[in-house]
Design goal:
The protein is α/β, with parallel strands linked by helices. It folds into 2 domains: 3-135, Threonyl-tRNA Synthetase, Chain A, domain 2; 155-429, Rossmann fold. The chain has 13 helices and 14 strands. The chain has helices at 3-21, 23-49, 58-66, 101-106, 108-114, 187-198, 230-253, 290-293, 298-317, 340-346, 358-365, 370-377, 406-415; strands spanning 78-84, 88-94, 119-126, 129-135, 155-161, 166-170, 177-180, 204-208, 223-227, 282-286, 323-329, 349-352, 386-390, 396-400. A hairpin with a 3-residue loop joins strand 1 (78-84) and strand 2 (88-94).
Length: 451
């Protein structure tokens, strides 16, 4: 056996092992180059087989007839760019006259089979230009977030999309969000990733966790206010409504409505204010909204109505005041009482983990994108963290957040505890926390007490 043969066998063995154990490494080492070559070689025939070609134009037919040449073939969209990424390929196409972006989107499953890729999605960049994103392997099986992500205020990289792109929770673009999911579906991990992403930012975190605080109170050092009972949650929400009114008074006082101020500089929300006057933005996380909406007596019903009214006010008016809602629950339907559907209509961002029935998925996507309902109910039970996300624009995608343990989230919140702002309106709800232990204190078990 020659040295060349031995080297070839070793390379093939390494490729097989990498594809089995480390698909991302395999893709970067071998898969990207092979897939690029495969796409370029098969491109014309695949486009023709998938019905993505157009017949030759009249002037080409006339020129062929005059020159006594063969009839020109149908033409596929022109390739503008082929760019390998760490998860797949980016193919930018210039559409021919008579084609539209829906043609590419409708043929995405056929393109996936023809090009032997794991997944294919497309989006229109501008008129006549479509970007086709292909993934070479299952990026959601073992989520690895990229080291470098886009940095922007109130924009959190929270999960990875099935096409390999980073999914951001952008509070300035989508102020309020709803997260649904059954027990053990990964909803709590998704929430931890949100807190972990917000912890290093200049933002106040407010939590409402009526499960006696087991989810959010371990992260208390980074929270400006916490509530663990419906009674405390009512007082906290009404304090937030009062704080919102004070912020609007500040905006009114600093609107700068003089004639020599450009329209773009007139203040309409906190982000138009000068930095030294800008109130700190607030993200309100509600862990289980059903605990705020259920009641068993007349007094609890009155409390429930006040809670829902406060949430609706914050959802309708809170964006300009820098107050953003992140509401989680297992179900969020009209059976929770009056005002619930009005509140749900204000929650633009929708994320659904595995649900127990189709009606729960309809609560999230039935009024936005019916196809996402089918995707949500097909999430298997053995893949916690897989979710379907969408918004009122009609687009949706499958995502998965990286696993973040409670200890990791606690350590990150403790690290950035000095960033926790103190808001006078929320001071009564500031969680009481003990001082952090010194580095010199040994983390050993204490001796048992003796009588």
């Amino acid at each position: 056996m020659t040295a060349l043969t031995v080297a070839l066998v070793l390379v093939v063995a390494a490729a097989v092992i990498l594809r089995w154990r480390r698909p991302a490494w395999y893709w970067m080492a071998f898969g990207a180059a092979y897939a690029t070559l495969r796409v370029l070689v098969r491109y014309a025939s695949v486009m023709d087989a998938c019905g993505l070609t157009v017949p030759p134009s009249r002037w080409r037919l006339a020129f062929a007839r005059i020159a006594n040449r063969p009839v020109p073939e149908s033409r596929a969209p022109r390739i503008l760019r082929v760019h390998p990424t760490c998860t797949g390929l980016l193919l930018r196409l210039k559409l021919r006259p008579g084609q539209d972006a829906f043609d590419i989107s409708a043929a995405s499953d056929r393109l996936r089979h023809s090009f032997a890729m794991y997944g294919v999605t497309s989006r229109e960049l501008r008129s006549g230009v479509v970007e086709v994103r292909m993934t070479g392997y299952d990026v959601l099986k073992r989520v690895r977030m990229p080291v470098k992500t886009d940095k922007a205020p109130m924009r959190v990289p929270v999960a990875l999309r099935e096409d390999g792109a980073v999914h951001y929770r952008d509070y300035r673009a989508v102020p309020h969000g709803l997260t649904l999911g059954a027990t053990e579906s990964g909803k709590s991990v998704y929430q931890r990733n949100l807190v972990a992403g917000l912890a290093p930012m200049d933002v106040a975190l407010v939590g409402i966790d009526c499960k006696q605080g087991v989810e959010l109170f371990p992260l208390a050092r980074r929270f400006s206010a916490l509530a663990d009972t419906p009674d405390t949650a009512l007082d906290l929400l009404e304090a937030l409504v009062s704080h919102m009114a004070d912020v609007y008074q500040l905006i009114r006082a600093e609107q700068r409505m003089t004639v020599n101020v450009p329209d773009a500089e007139i203040a309409a929300d906190i982000w138009d204010l000068p930095e030294h006057l800008r109130p700190v933005p607030i993200v309100v996380l509600v862990d289980e909204v059903a605990e705020l909406a259920l009641f068993a007596s007349k007094d609890e019903e009155k409390r429930r109505d006040r809670i829902i009214t406060a949430l609706v006010r914050l959802a309708q008016l809170g964006r300009a005041a820098g107050i953003y809602l992140e509401i989680c629950g297992q179900r969020f339907g009209s059976e929770l009482g009056k005002g619930i559907t009005m509140l749900r209509a204000q929650l633009t961002g929708r994320t659904a983990h595995r649900v127990n029935d189709e009606s729960s998925a309809n609560m999230a996507f039935g009024d936005i994108f019916p196809d996402a309902v089918l995707a949500a109910i097909q999430i298997p039970t053995d893949t916690p963290g897989i979710a379907v996300t969408g918004d009122s624009s009609g687009g949706w995608a499958r995502i998965r957040a990286p696993h973040t343990s409670l200890r990791q989230a606690v350590n990150l919140c403790n690290k950035h505890a000095d960033r926790t702002p103190e808001l006078p309106a929320l001071a009564p709800f500031r969680p009481a926390t003990a001082a952090l232990p010194s580095d010199r204190v040994p983390l050993s078990k204490t001796a048992p007490a003796t009588v």
